[in-house]
Amino acid sequence: MTRLSSAFAKPHPALVCFITAGDGDTAANLDALVEGGADVIELGMPFTDPMADGPAIQAANLRSLGAGTTTADILLIANEFRERHPTVPLVLMGYANPMVRRGPEWFAAECAGCGVDGVICVDIPPEEDEALGPALRAHGIAPIRLATPTTDAARLPAVLEGSAGFLYYVSVAGITGKQQAEIGSIEANVRRIKQSTDLPVAVGFGVRTPDQAREIAQVADGVVVGSALVDLVGQFGAAAPAKMRELTSALAQAVHSSQ
Amino acid sequence: MSKQANSFRTQPDERGHFGQFGGRFVAETLMPLVLDLEREYRAAQADPAFQAEFDDLLEHYVGRPSPLYFAPGLTKELNGAQVWFKRDELNHTGAHKINNCVGQILLAIRMGKTRIIAETGAGQHGVATATVCARFGLPCVVYMGATDVARQAPNVFRMKLLGAEVVPVTAGAATLKDAMNEALRDWVANVHDTFYIIGTAAGPHPYPEMVRNFQSVIGKEARAQMLSRTGRLPDLLVAAIGGGSNALGLFHPFLDDPDVKMLGVEAAGHGLDKEHAASLLGGSPGVLHGNRTYLLQDADGQITEGHSISAGLDYPGIGPEHAWLKETGRVEYTAVTDDEALDAFQLLCRTEGIIPALEPSHAIAAVKKIAPTMPTDAIILANLCGRGDKDIFTVADKLGVEI
User: Fold this and answer.
1) DSSP labels for A187-235?
2) Cβ(A2)–Cβ(A53) under 8 Å?
3) What share of chain A is helix, strand, coil (3-state, %, to 5)?
4) How far is B41 from chain A (nearest CA, A)?
5) How far is CA A142 from CA A47, A92, A145, A164, B301, in A?
6) Which of B28, B177, B191 sits opposite A170 (nearest CB)?
7) Which of A32, A108, B224, B362 sits at 20 to 30 Å (Cα–Cα) from A212?
8) With bands split at pLDDT 50, 70 and 90, how would you rate the model's confidence at B173?
9) Inter-chain touch B32–A152, beta carbons under 8 Å
10) Residue boundaries of the structural domains of chain A
11) Which residues of chain A have a Cβ shorter than 8 Å from any chain B Cβ?
12) Taking the C-alpha atoms of A116, A120, A124 and A127 in order, what is their torsion angle to the nearest 10 degrees?
């Protein structure tokens, strides 16, 4: 079993936590997420042009790049995380250009070397898979795809083809950190997707509170929380880890006890 | 022998790739919409009624065909090749941008979309979009970097007069690329009713091809006009390049005329070794805003800011077809600095009584260098893609004149 499949094989839904690499004391924040009970970690790769992100993650990207974060720094953060937490799945999430800048082979090999389990690239749809997908698969890294409310039945097979790890269901047609979709629509879409795949389905975009997370965990295999955690870094800076542990713990309790 | 070797006019392929460039690098939420747009565009292309309405609006609303003009004063001054201009600055709204906006809004209406969004840098595309939205009664939101809002105040006011909502974008560096990011964020959240009118031949497929085709009216007219006036084709085409739509519009109908050379002119800003906006000459291939193309970027793939005296040229990317035309060698690319463009701006004012925009002033600066090296019976055709009214404040500032 891979680290990712183990995380989704637990007797409860998985809490997936996102923070942006290089924003604040990332190592301490990552440790706080694990201590709080996160089952999967998504580490955001900052990009100058995060066009799928709302204000919270945009600001985190700017803070990180403003502090001088490089790709080498991000890979080092990942590598050290893997040394401290041998079993917690780690996924890199970001945009195509920083990932393919030195070639997909280079990036995939670096990910494998740092113990990264999966990669979510926001702006490489299945139609452009060759830009990164083959290299990731060759190195045993799961290409994790996104499905959205606009991914209709005709298109879903193309999204699932070549996906691995889990499927990230984006609950709203929109950007990160904004409004949440109503639960009925989420439930119907997750059920629809699960009829076509054995991959676990995690739901994200707009999930900020334990109550929201609990509700979604009742109908999905995992819940992704990002903007609310990233906001803590913006708000509390060096004091963020304690706040992050607190919120993650509340989220984990809600998600893990939901079913 | 591949199709590509026979013709330069058959790109992109069915996936929207121009060689290794182009494509559809967008978030999943937008993919179904982009595919839908492509289907609808193909249907419109095959519909004579669509083309007829486009042609009618270009003739009676935009004022096409634009004149082909022999520039005697500039030709005499440069003492070399004959210089001719395609006068797209005489279009309604004062630039070539309107050609594309007419095409895209007809497509939006055909698709049943009820809300239009656009990004703008200098404001010309924003004004053109606001114009067609007023003409067809559709609400219009224009995203514009806060920096550009400040330095292009007349165009901001024009857009507002035309009924558009202008949203200043403060994210990032608050210029054109950030406006495009914000427009994409709007689009992804409003896919059900919103059509995004992209202003240049860039973005996800089918935009680069579609914008090029709408702008190709420039080259089609120019080719026929030149044949009719001189009995032959020009020796050299010259056009300025930001995203590259006016250049593609002029070049594309000539791409398979082997004796017609072409020169795209990027903005060298303060110089190619300093701050500039020359993605082809000073950038490298990458992925941004839906397509793989040449970008200004650092070693980690972070996008760097373009600089040009012309707000219409300071985008850190370029249409993917230009990237392909550069790699195939069919089109040559060069760059001129802010100062050279400023000189050319004044040169055209003085020799022809035409105040050009700062964008085509880059093309004129290149013409100024090349014309004297060519024989007097040679013909250069440059695209005068915009008029300079919007730039007089910038120019006055650079010349140290208070107005």
Assistant:
1) HHHHHHHHTT-SS-EEEESS--SHHHHHHHHTTSSEEEE-HHHHHHHHH
2) no
3) 50, 15, 35
4) 19
5) 21, 10, 9, 5, 22
6) B28
7) A32
8) confident
9) yes
10) 3-256
11) 47-54, 58, 62, 65, 70-71, 95-101, 122-125, 127-128, 131, 145-152, 155, 159, 170, 172-175, 178
12) 90
**Is the pLDDT score of B110 beyond 80?**
yes
Query: Which listed residue (A42, A129, A221, A231) is catalytic?
Result: A42
Residue B1: pLDDT band by 50, 70, 90 thresholds? very low
Per CB-CB distance under 8 Å, the chain A contacts of B294 are none
Q: Among A147, A159, A175, whose Cβ lies nearest the Cβ of B188?
A: A175
How many helices (H) and strands (E) are present in chain A, helices listed first? 12, 9
Task: Specify the CATH superfamily of domain A3-256.
Answer: Aldolase class I (3.20.20.70)
The confidence score (pLDDT) of residue A206 equals 87
In angstroms, the CA A48 to CA B24 distance is 19
Q: Is B61 on the interface with A (CB under 8 A)?
A: no
Give me B9's structure tokens: 């006019």
Task: Say what the pLDDT of residue A176 is.
Answer: 81
The answer to whether B14 faces chain A, any CB pair under 8 Å, is no
> How many residues are listed for chain A in this entry?
259
Query: Is it the case that residue A19 has pLDDT exceeding 70?
Result: yes
pLDDT of residue B5: 58
pLDDT at res. B9: 95
Task: Label residue B3 by pLDDT band (50, 70, 90).
Answer: very low
Q: Is the pLDDT of residue B4 over 70?
A: no
Q: What's the gap in Å between the CA of B187 and the closest CA on chain A?
A: 8
Active site residue A182: no
Query: Among candidates B144, B179, B192, B135, which has minimal Cα distance to B165?
Result: B144
Complex ipTM: 0.96
Q: Pick the catalytic residue: A53, A129, A221, A231?
A: A53
- DSSP class of residue A173? S
* Nearest Cβ partner for A97 among B15, B30, B286: B286
Q: How far apart are CA B57 and CA B51, in angstroms?
A: 10
Q: Does the pLDDT value for residue B204 go beyond 90?
A: yes
Q: What percent of chain A has pLDDT over 70?
A: 100
Residue B175, phi then psi, degrees to nearest 5: -125, -160
Q: With an 8 Å Cβ cutoff, are A174 and B26 in contact? A: no
